[in-house]
Amino acid sequence: MDNQLVQEDLFDVEVDSIAKKLILDIATWAKIVSISAITSYGLSLVISIFRNKVSDGGFAESTGQATTTAGAFVTLIIGIILNSFLFTFARNAKYGVEHMDQGSLENGFNKLHIYFKIVGVIVIIFISVVVLLLLFNQGI
Amino acid sequence: MESGNQPPILNDLLVTHSIGDHIHDTTKWTRFLAIVIIICLSLFLLLVIAAGSTIVSTMNTAYPGLSDMGNLVWVIVIVFFLVFGALAFFLLRFSIYARRGLEMRNQNLFNEGLKALKIYFIIYGVFLILSVFANAFSLLSL
Q: Measured between CB atoms, which of B17, B22, B36 is closest to A113?
Protein backbone atom coordinates (compact mmCIF):
# COMPACT_ATOMS: atom_id res chain seq x y z
CA MET A 1 0.00 0.00 0.00
CA ASP A 2 2.77 2.39 0.98
CA ASN A 3 4.74 1.47 -2.13
CA GLN A 4 1.68 2.10 -4.28
CA LEU A 5 1.19 5.54 -2.75
CA VAL A 6 4.81 6.43 -3.34
CA GLN A 7 4.69 5.20 -6.93
CA GLU A 8 1.52 7.24 -7.58
CA ASP A 9 3.34 10.32 -6.36
CA LEU A 10 6.00 9.98 -9.05
CA PHE A 11 6.38 10.84 -12.68
CA ASP A 12 8.05 8.13 -14.73
CA VAL A 13 10.87 10.57 -15.21
CA GLU A 14 13.88 10.19 -12.98
CA VAL A 15 16.92 12.27 -12.29
CA ASP A 16 19.32 9.97 -14.14
CA SER A 17 23.08 10.46 -14.39
CA ILE A 18 22.72 12.83 -17.38
CA ALA A 19 20.05 14.91 -15.60
CA LYS A 20 22.20 15.01 -12.44
CA LYS A 21 25.18 16.35 -14.39
CA LEU A 22 22.92 18.91 -16.12
CA ILE A 23 21.40 20.05 -12.81
CA LEU A 24 24.89 20.45 -11.30
CA ASP A 25 25.99 22.52 -14.32
CA ILE A 26 22.79 24.61 -14.14
CA ALA A 27 23.40 25.18 -10.41
CA THR A 28 27.01 26.29 -11.04
CA TRP A 29 26.00 28.78 -13.72
CA ALA A 30 22.96 29.97 -11.76
CA LYS A 31 25.32 30.79 -8.89
CA ILE A 32 27.63 32.69 -11.29
CA VAL A 33 24.60 34.55 -12.72
CA SER A 34 23.27 35.57 -9.29
CA ILE A 35 26.67 36.78 -8.00
CA SER A 36 27.53 38.59 -11.28
CA ALA A 37 24.10 40.26 -11.43
CA ILE A 38 24.33 41.61 -7.86
CA THR A 39 27.94 42.75 -8.46
CA SER A 40 26.90 44.50 -11.67
CA TYR A 41 23.98 46.28 -9.96
CA GLY A 42 26.29 47.30 -7.10
CA LEU A 43 28.88 48.71 -9.50
CA SER A 44 26.15 50.63 -11.36
CA LEU A 45 25.08 52.22 -8.08
CA VAL A 46 28.68 53.17 -7.20
CA ILE A 47 29.19 54.65 -10.70
CA SER A 48 26.01 56.73 -10.45
CA ILE A 49 27.02 57.99 -6.96
CA PHE A 50 30.50 58.96 -8.26
CA ARG A 51 28.97 60.73 -11.28
CA ASN A 52 26.62 62.55 -8.92
CA LYS A 53 29.62 63.79 -6.90
CA VAL A 54 31.69 64.69 -9.95
CA SER A 55 28.79 66.52 -11.64
CA ASP A 56 28.95 70.29 -11.21
CA GLY A 57 26.06 71.08 -13.52
CA GLY A 58 22.89 72.99 -12.77
CA PHE A 59 19.74 71.95 -10.98
CA ALA A 60 18.37 69.91 -13.90
CA GLU A 61 21.56 67.84 -14.22
CA SER A 62 21.76 67.27 -10.44
CA THR A 63 18.12 66.17 -10.36
CA GLY A 64 18.74 63.84 -13.29
CA GLN A 65 21.79 62.31 -11.58
CA ALA A 66 19.85 61.91 -8.31
CA THR A 67 17.06 60.10 -10.18
CA THR A 68 19.64 57.80 -11.81
CA THR A 69 21.19 57.03 -8.40
CA ALA A 70 17.75 56.32 -6.90
CA GLY A 71 16.98 54.05 -9.87
CA ALA A 72 20.27 52.19 -9.44
CA PHE A 73 19.55 51.77 -5.70
CA VAL A 74 16.05 50.36 -6.34
CA THR A 75 17.51 48.04 -9.03
CA LEU A 76 20.13 46.82 -6.53
CA ILE A 77 17.48 46.07 -3.86
CA ILE A 78 15.21 44.24 -6.33
CA GLY A 79 18.27 42.48 -7.80
CA ILE A 80 19.40 41.23 -4.37
CA ILE A 81 15.91 39.89 -3.54
CA LEU A 82 15.48 38.31 -6.98
CA ASN A 83 18.92 36.75 -7.22
CA SER A 84 18.77 35.39 -3.67
CA PHE A 85 16.11 32.98 -4.99
CA LEU A 86 18.39 31.94 -7.86
CA PHE A 87 21.32 31.50 -5.47
CA THR A 88 19.17 29.39 -3.10
CA PHE A 89 18.04 27.28 -6.06
CA ALA A 90 21.67 26.69 -7.02
CA ARG A 91 22.70 25.79 -3.47
CA ASN A 92 19.75 23.47 -2.80
CA ALA A 93 19.82 21.78 -6.20
CA LYS A 94 23.55 21.09 -5.86
CA TYR A 95 23.12 19.77 -2.32
CA GLY A 96 20.13 17.68 -3.39
CA VAL A 97 22.01 16.01 -6.23
CA GLU A 98 25.28 15.52 -4.35
CA HIS A 99 23.63 14.15 -1.19
CA MET A 100 20.68 12.41 -2.92
CA ASP A 101 18.31 14.60 -0.91
CA GLN A 102 14.88 14.72 -2.54
CA GLY A 103 13.70 17.51 -0.19
CA SER A 104 16.56 19.87 -1.09
CA LEU A 105 16.06 19.23 -4.80
CA GLU A 106 12.34 19.97 -4.46
CA ASN A 107 13.04 23.15 -2.50
CA GLY A 108 15.59 24.18 -5.13
CA PHE A 109 13.14 23.83 -8.02
CA ASN A 110 10.55 25.73 -5.98
CA LYS A 111 13.03 28.63 -5.69
CA LEU A 112 13.74 28.49 -9.44
CA HIS A 113 9.98 28.68 -10.07
CA ILE A 114 9.71 31.72 -7.75
CA TYR A 115 12.71 33.37 -9.48
CA PHE A 116 11.16 33.15 -12.95
CA LYS A 117 7.74 34.14 -11.54
CA ILE A 118 9.20 37.36 -10.05
CA VAL A 119 11.02 38.12 -13.33
CA GLY A 120 7.72 37.58 -15.19
CA VAL A 121 5.79 39.86 -12.82
CA ILE A 122 8.49 42.58 -13.13
CA VAL A 123 8.24 42.30 -16.94
CA ILE A 124 4.41 42.59 -16.77
CA ILE A 125 4.68 45.70 -14.54
CA PHE A 126 7.30 47.22 -16.87
CA ILE A 127 5.17 46.59 -19.98
CA SER A 128 2.09 48.04 -18.22
CA VAL A 129 4.01 51.21 -17.27
CA VAL A 130 5.34 51.62 -20.84
CA VAL A 131 1.84 51.15 -22.32
CA LEU A 132 0.34 53.62 -19.80
CA LEU A 133 3.06 56.18 -20.60
CA LEU A 134 2.43 55.77 -24.33
CA LEU A 135 -1.33 56.20 -23.84
CA PHE A 136 -0.78 59.17 -21.52
CA ASN A 137 1.55 60.86 -24.04
CA GLN A 138 -0.96 60.29 -26.86
CA GLY A 139 -3.73 61.73 -24.68
CA ILE A 140 -1.73 64.91 -24.16
CA MET B 1 20.23 22.61 4.69
CA GLU B 2 17.04 20.56 4.50
CA SER B 3 16.95 17.14 6.04
CA GLY B 4 16.53 14.09 3.82
CA ASN B 5 13.01 13.52 2.53
CA GLN B 6 13.55 10.35 0.55
CA PRO B 7 10.65 8.17 -0.50
CA PRO B 8 11.16 5.01 1.56
CA ILE B 9 11.47 2.53 -1.30
CA LEU B 10 13.76 4.59 -3.47
CA ASN B 11 17.48 5.10 -3.39
CA ASP B 12 17.77 7.39 -6.39
CA LEU B 13 16.49 10.91 -7.08
CA LEU B 14 13.15 11.08 -8.87
CA VAL B 15 10.92 13.74 -10.29
CA THR B 16 8.07 13.67 -7.75
CA HIS B 17 4.74 15.36 -8.50
CA SER B 18 5.86 18.26 -6.33
CA ILE B 19 9.10 18.76 -8.34
CA GLY B 20 7.16 18.17 -11.56
CA ASP B 21 4.65 20.88 -10.58
CA HIS B 22 7.46 23.34 -9.82
CA ILE B 23 9.13 22.61 -13.19
CA HIS B 24 5.74 22.82 -14.94
CA ASP B 25 5.07 26.25 -13.39
CA THR B 26 8.62 27.35 -14.26
CA THR B 27 8.07 26.41 -17.91
CA LYS B 28 4.91 28.60 -18.01
CA TRP B 29 6.88 31.66 -16.91
CA THR B 30 9.92 30.92 -19.09
CA ARG B 31 7.62 30.56 -22.12
CA PHE B 32 6.02 33.91 -21.30
CA LEU B 33 9.45 35.56 -20.94
CA ALA B 34 10.74 34.02 -24.18
CA ILE B 35 7.67 35.27 -26.09
CA VAL B 36 8.06 38.78 -24.60
CA ILE B 37 11.75 38.86 -25.62
CA ILE B 38 10.87 37.68 -29.16
CA ILE B 39 8.12 40.35 -29.49
CA CYS B 40 10.46 43.10 -28.19
CA LEU B 41 13.27 42.00 -30.54
CA SER B 42 10.80 41.94 -33.47
CA LEU B 43 9.56 45.46 -32.65
CA PHE B 44 13.16 46.65 -32.33
CA LEU B 45 14.03 45.03 -35.67
CA LEU B 46 11.06 46.77 -37.33
CA LEU B 47 12.20 50.08 -35.83
CA VAL B 48 15.76 49.54 -37.12
CA ILE B 49 14.47 48.64 -40.61
CA ALA B 50 11.97 51.50 -40.74
CA ALA B 51 14.03 54.26 -39.19
CA GLY B 52 17.56 52.91 -38.86
CA SER B 53 19.25 55.43 -41.15
CA THR B 54 17.32 58.34 -39.59
CA ILE B 55 18.33 57.23 -36.08
CA VAL B 56 22.01 56.88 -37.12
CA SER B 57 22.11 60.31 -38.78
CA THR B 58 20.39 61.91 -35.75
CA MET B 59 22.88 60.22 -33.41
CA ASN B 60 25.80 61.32 -35.61
CA THR B 61 24.58 64.90 -35.36
CA ALA B 62 24.06 64.67 -31.60
CA TYR B 63 27.30 62.77 -30.92
CA PRO B 64 29.85 63.65 -33.65
CA GLY B 65 32.39 61.19 -32.22
CA LEU B 66 30.04 58.32 -32.96
CA SER B 67 30.51 58.59 -36.73
CA ASP B 68 34.26 57.95 -36.25
CA MET B 69 33.41 54.56 -34.76
CA GLY B 70 32.23 53.39 -38.18
CA ASN B 71 30.17 50.23 -38.03
CA LEU B 72 30.75 49.61 -34.33
CA VAL B 73 27.18 50.66 -33.49
CA TRP B 74 25.82 48.13 -35.97
CA VAL B 75 28.10 45.43 -34.55
CA ILE B 76 26.76 46.17 -31.04
CA VAL B 77 23.17 46.03 -32.36
CA ILE B 78 23.82 42.67 -34.06
CA VAL B 79 25.51 41.23 -30.93
CA PHE B 80 22.55 42.46 -28.85
CA PHE B 81 20.16 40.69 -31.24
CA LEU B 82 22.17 37.47 -31.21
CA VAL B 83 22.52 37.35 -27.40
CA PHE B 84 18.89 38.11 -26.61
CA GLY B 85 17.69 35.96 -29.51
CA ALA B 86 19.70 33.02 -28.15
CA LEU B 87 18.38 33.63 -24.61
CA ALA B 88 14.78 33.60 -25.89
CA PHE B 89 15.44 30.51 -28.03
CA PHE B 90 16.88 28.45 -25.17
CA LEU B 91 14.22 29.59 -22.68
CA LEU B 92 11.52 28.57 -25.14
CA ARG B 93 13.30 25.29 -25.84
CA PHE B 94 13.51 24.56 -22.10
CA SER B 95 9.81 25.32 -21.61
CA ILE B 96 8.74 23.12 -24.54
CA TYR B 97 11.03 20.13 -23.91
CA ALA B 98 10.83 20.00 -20.10
CA ARG B 99 7.05 20.28 -20.22
CA ARG B 100 6.70 17.62 -22.92
CA GLY B 101 9.18 15.41 -21.10
CA LEU B 102 7.05 15.52 -17.96
CA GLU B 103 3.71 15.18 -19.74
CA MET B 104 4.85 12.34 -21.99
CA ARG B 105 7.03 10.80 -19.27
CA ASN B 106 9.98 10.93 -21.66
CA GLN B 107 13.41 11.04 -20.03
CA ASN B 108 15.23 12.22 -23.18
CA LEU B 109 12.90 15.18 -23.73
CA PHE B 110 13.18 16.13 -20.06
CA ASN B 111 16.98 16.03 -20.27
CA GLU B 112 16.89 18.11 -23.48
CA GLY B 113 14.89 20.72 -21.56
CA LEU B 114 17.48 20.78 -18.77
CA LYS B 115 20.25 21.08 -21.37
CA ALA B 116 18.52 24.13 -22.89
CA LEU B 117 18.22 25.72 -19.43
CA LYS B 118 21.93 25.07 -18.84
CA ILE B 119 22.87 26.81 -22.11
CA TYR B 120 20.54 29.71 -21.22
CA PHE B 121 22.33 30.20 -17.89
CA ILE B 122 25.77 29.92 -19.56
CA ILE B 123 24.92 32.65 -22.12
CA TYR B 124 23.32 34.84 -19.45
CA GLY B 125 26.28 34.25 -17.10
CA VAL B 126 28.89 35.19 -19.72
CA PHE B 127 26.83 38.29 -20.64
CA LEU B 128 26.66 39.35 -16.96
CA ILE B 129 30.39 38.72 -16.38
CA LEU B 130 31.14 40.97 -19.38
CA SER B 131 28.76 43.61 -17.98
CA VAL B 132 30.61 43.45 -14.62
CA PHE B 133 33.91 44.06 -16.45
CA ALA B 134 32.32 46.91 -18.45
CA ASN B 135 31.02 48.52 -15.25
CA ALA B 136 34.39 48.08 -13.52
CA PHE B 137 36.15 49.65 -16.51
CA SER B 138 33.63 52.50 -16.49
CA LEU B 139 34.22 53.03 -12.75
CA LEU B 140 38.01 53.12 -13.20
CA SER B 141 37.76 55.61 -16.05
CA LEU B 142 35.75 58.09 -13.93
A: B22
A78 vs B: CB within 8 A: no
Give A-chain residues touching B35 at CB under 8 angstroms.
none
pLDDT in tens, A98-140: 999 999 999 999 999 999 999 999 999 999 999 999 998 876 5
Predicted confidence (pLDDT) per residue in A56-108, tens digit: 666 666 777 788 889 999 999 999 999 999 999 999 999 999 999 999 999 99
Q: Which stretches of chain B are assigned E, i.e. beta strand?
A: 14-16
Contact assessment for residue A92 and residue A111, using Cβ atoms and an 8 Å cutoff: yes
Count of structural domains within chain B = 1
Domain that residue B39 falls in:
15-140
**Does a structural domain hold residue B10?**
no
Q: Specify the pTM.
A: 0.86
Please give the Cα distance from A134 to B92 (Å, whole number).
29
- B9 is a domain residue: no
In a domain, B8, yes or no: no
Tell if the CB–CB gap between A43 and B139 is shorter than 8 Å: yes
Report yes or no on B100 lying in a domain: yes
ipTM: 0.86
Pairing of strands A10-14, B14-16: antiparallel
For residue B103, with 0-12 CB atoms within 10 Å meaning exposed, 13-18 middle and 19 or more buried, which class applies?
A: middle
The contacts of residue B40 (CB under 8 Å, 6+ apart) are: none
